[in-house]
Amino acid sequence: MAALFVLRGRCPLAAAALALAVTAGACGADDDFSLPEWDAPGQNARVGDIMIRYAHVAEPRGRPWQPGSDVPAYVWLYNKGGEADRLLGADTPNAASVDIVDSDGKRLTDGVELPANQLVQLEPGKTHLMLRDVREVIRGGDFMKFTLRFEDAGSITFNIQSQIPAYDESPSPTR
Asked: pLDDT by residue (tens digit) across 42-93?
């Protein structure tokens, strides 16, 4: 009876592993390339073999981003192609320029390599995008046009949103 319990406990795990294997095996077919399969906030897009997910402007801290500010933007990029690609740059009419920067804020002029069949996360504390000298106030929830340029996949323009602030709900020191 104990052996049967152990077997039953492993069945869901085995079923999950089988489902993952079947899903991973199907990833090579273009028909199976579906954006809704990723469950994360942010804007989605696709260009060529590049899946773009969780694209957003960082949430404003305390007040909206002001004209002249440098504002971080984040995105996950998954290259489902058989060959590496490269993120070359980005543009938005809402800023003077968009730089690709390292974790220290230093501009990277060679872009970001996107190895085949790998996820690259442009996130806080890592390489990410920086909107330089924003031209107007950006509030949490605002949308803006954004273009990403890739070496092989080409360019895509889509709307990204400024993340809505999640403020600390702890008691105020004045209460």
From this structure: 788 999 999 999 999 998 888 899 999 999 999 999 999 999 999 999 999 9
Helix (H) or strand (E) holding 23: helix 2-26
Distance CA 147, CA 136 (A): 18
Query: Which among 152, 144, 148, 108 is positioned nearest to 126, based on CA atoms?
Result: 108
Q: How many helices (H) and strands (E) does the chain have?
A: 1, 10
Residue 26 in tokens: 């199907």
How many Cα neighbours within 13 Å face the side chain of 31?
A: 2
Instruction: State both tokens at 129.
Output: 């995008």
Are 84 and 116 in contact by the 8 Å Cβ rule? The answer is yes
47: amino acid identity, one letter: V
Q: Is 64 exposed, middle or buried (0-12, 13-18, 19+ CB in 10 A)?
A: middle
Q: Which one, of 84, 86, 88, lies nearest residue 116 by Cα?
A: 84
Strands 50-57 and 154-162: parallel
Give how far the C-alpha of residue 50 lies from the chain's centroid of Cα atoms, to the nearest Å. Answer: 12
User: Which token pair is 28?
Assistant: 């090579």
Decide: pTM greater than 0.85.
Answer: no
Rounded Cα distance, 155 and 29, in Å: 22
Please answer whether residues 103 and 165 qualify as being in contact, where contact means their C-beta atoms are separated by less than 8 angstroms: no
